[in-house]
Give the backbone structure.
Amino acid sequence: MRLKTRFRLQIRLGAILLVLAANLAPSGPAHACRFWALIGIDYPEDLIEEHLRSGSLANLESLGSMNRNGWAFAAYFPRESSLPLSGPLIRRGGPPASHPTDPDYDRAVDELVDLRPRCVLGHVRAATSGLWGIPNPHPFEHAGLVFAHNGGLPAADLVDAILEADPKFFETHPPDYLEAAIDSEIYLLYLIRIMEANPGLSRTEAIVTGVREIALRFPNHRMNFVMSQGDTLWALRHAPHDESDPVRYFPAVEPGENSGAGSPYWCVASEVMGSSEERWGTLPPRHLAVFEPGRPPRFLPILSAWPAEEAINPDAGVGRTRIEAGESPR
């Protein structure tokens, strides 16, 4: 059976299983998954505790009550730490983060508080594609990158787009979830394919190129994500009609204010976390933000306006749109 056909059958089966599971699950508010990310050092001692567990406005644990399909963290620890790790440490749970008797979420947060990672991505899942009833697969890890998504994309069509450009891509980059492809993992693999097919682009340029192509192929889908390799945090806000639900970041850089420009740390979240809205900023619509400790954030436009409803001609190719982001290759 051709690889494309096999993938499509697996994805369709996963979609059917997800619909059945959703019909059996308790009803609740319909909204996208929630993510949170931190990069840098010298952040306040109580920041992780506030954002992940005790914040009175919102915290990732409390958001587990509306995003009940598990939780997960991917953390990079300081290079001078004694931990013998060559990549991120990942913790996952299947029960909701807010589960009253499961101790694993609290244990993971305790670990983060004690070890003070230099970068960490967290996610609570409201499943929209792929497998259901498993530990949260976000953040995904491929090619040295970790990635958490807040939205939904057509997984089968993403698979087709990748195979049109490189029919053997999934032979060298197999997804972790073959039984029923998860749109978010295919999204990450799409971006990785763009990076590898365009070695002349910096990583940031390649990300903008890939996001732009997906936005043109599949307009009006929620594409928000956070992604890192441990020293840079990329965050995307790209969702239609999200004025009341934008991606946020902390500490905000005020116009004309330099004190926040070189912050030793940055946080990004699907909504304000902690006990105060003070100094939380908002990513511009349809922009990729680039956060590096000690440097001002950069906000790079994806599309100036929402594209037309019809997708672009797939014969136009994938990975051929070059953008200039003003950054040397990394």
